[in-house]
Each structure stands twice: as C-alpha cells, then as structure tokens.
Amino acid sequence: MTVKSCLSSMRLRTLPLSLSGVVVGIALGKEICELKPAVVITLIVTTALLQILSNLSNELGDTLSGTDTEGRQGVHYSIQDGEMTIPQMKKFIAVIAVLCCISGLGMVLYSFGTIFAFAPAALLVLGAAAIWSAMHYTLGKNPYGYRGLGDLFVFIFFGIVAVVGAAYVCSHSFRAEWLLPGSAFGLWSIGVLNVNNIRDMKTDAATRTTVALKLGLRKARIYHAALICGGWVLMLVWNLITACNWSEWLFFVTLPLFALHLRGVFTRTERSLDPMLPMLVMTTFITALIFLCQ
Q: Which of 287, 54, 230, 14 is nearest to 153 (CA)?
C-alpha cells in the first residue's frame, strides 16, 4: 500500500461535491452570527473525512460484490489494479472512521462547549448516522446502494443535512427556508450519482439496482434534467423570498455551465460520460463558493 494508492482510493476529486452543501450552510450561518474559525475548520475536515470514508467503503463493497470488473466504464482504483489488498483497505477504512469520530466530536465541542445537552447529543447521533451511511452504500450484508436507495441518501446527507446541519452548527439556529437551498444542492448531488449510474448501466445490471437501471437510458436522462432544473427552481424561489439586492443573484452566472453539462449527458454514453462527473461536481462547488462570497 503506497501513498499513491491511498490517494487514488480516496478519490479526492469528489471532495468539492461533499463540501458544497457545507459551504452553503456556512454562508447561511454567517448571516446570523460571527463564525468561529475552529468550528468552520472542524466542520470542513469532518465532511471531507466522511466523503473519503464513503469512497473507500464503496471501493471495498464493489470489490467484494464483484461489481468492479475489467468492464467497468469509470476510473479504476487501487484494489482493482492490485495496488492495495482487501485487508489493507479494511485497515484504511478503520483509520478514517476513527478520524471521523474524533473530528466530529471536536466540531460539536467547539460549537457548543459540551456534548451533554440535547442539541450537541442530537448532532452526535446524526454524525453516527452519517458514518453508517458513508460505509453502507455498497458495503455490508444489505447495502442500500444496491437497492436503488442511493439517491434518497444522497439527497438527505449531501443536501438537507449538509446545508441545514452546517448552518445549525455555525449559528445554533434553524430557519425553514434553509430547506430550499438544502434541497437544491441535494438534487444536484443526486445528479452526480445519476451520471455515474447512467455511465455504468451495463456493468451494474448484473450486481445491483439503481434508479437509472429502473428507468432505462432515455428516462434516466429526463430524470437527470429534472434534478438539475429542479435545483435551479428551488434556488430561484429562495432568492425571490430572501434576496435584498442584485449581488445576491451572482451565483446564477453558473447556470450556463449546468446547461452545458446537461447537453453532455444527453449526447454522451458510457465512458464518454465520465468528464460530465467532475464538471457537475465543480460547477456545483463554484455555485456554493459564489453563494458564500456574495
């Protein structure tokens, strides 16, 4: 096991997507109170570690189930290429899981000063659920990702939990309208998973069920358009409710990039779809950064 193989399995290119919702949550939190640097740092670190844990568990789960084969359309990772053994991956996952617990506990303590109260205790339970979700997408006896439930979990944890949870950790407040950007970024995050599932439809058919397989190629593309457009409708509603000046509309400059992404999804197939994944990830992340800075 080398540093190169570890970095490959960590799939660092996916981190901007997991951080997008948190960045939006931080933006919402800073509108209410002054941000604590330690809270923001541990929040970002915890989110990144959870994404890495999910990526490692996904690789191990796909290997054990036989999903990762030579016919896989996407990027090959360490176990598949023989650069890391299954026991080594299990140890790597255990280390990252422990780091997630330590970082998450630190985040709650920096934010609330204690874990012996309802709000911090509830956040720790939510954190445990996030760790479970990260590990069991394709890993375990009955992984939810093989039953077509990945879209739902991505919406909850990459959207609602990421945005509203991050805002709450930063501000100790909750506002119902935060569910609008939370849902928007959740839909765009599902979009990333959906592109992955459209690309891998042929190889996935033998080992798992995904929404894309249930729908078929044509309807999966229509579903994808609904995810992207639905997110933008929610952000439009959000701005109509909350925007006070023109600068709060700046994040709409990324709309053409989403349109280009949609064009690629509707015109490409299988391995040629792979560039559409980082394109949607980075476009979503850039939208979040503009949202933070406006």
A: 54
Partner residues linked to 206 by β-bridges: none
Check residue 8 and give its pLDDT. Answer: 84
**C-alpha distances in Å from residue 42, one per residue of 61, 112, 113, 167, 174:** 28, 13, 14, 14, 20
Tell me which residue of 165, 273, 186 sits closest to 230, measured CA to CA: 186
Global pTM value: 0.93
Task: Report the sign of the C-alpha dihedral through residues 61, 163, 118, 175, in that order.
Answer: negative
pLDDT tens, residue by residue, 106-139: 999 999 999 999 999 999 999 999 999 999 988 8
Long-range pairs of 108-114 with CB within 8 A, sequence gap ≥ 24: 108/169, 110/36, 110/38, 110/39, 110/42, 111/36, 111/39, 111/169, 111/170, 111/172, 112/172
SS (H, E, C) the chain: CCHHHHHHHHCHHHHHHHHHHHHHHHHHHHCCCCCCHHHHHHHHHHHHHHHHHHHHHHHHHHHHHCCCCCCCCCCCCCCCCCCCCHHHHHHHHHHHHHHHHHHHHHHHHHHHCCCCCHHHHHHHHHHHHHHHHHHCCCCCCCCHHHECCHHHHHHHHHHHHHHHHHHHHHHCCCCHHHHHHHHHHHHHHHHHHHHHHHHCHHHHCCCCECHHHHHCHHHHHHHHHHHHHHHHHHHHHHHHHHCCCHHHHHHHHHHHHHHHHHHHHHHCCHHHHCCHHHHHHHHHHHHHHHHHHC
CB 181 within 8 A of CB 238: yes
Residue 66 backbone dihedrals phi, psi, to 5 degrees: 85, 10
What is the C-alpha to C-alpha distance for residues 97 and 89, in angstroms, rounded to an integer? 12
pLDDT confidence of residue 125: 94
In this predicted structure, the answer to whether residue 71 has a pLDDT above a threshold of 60 is no
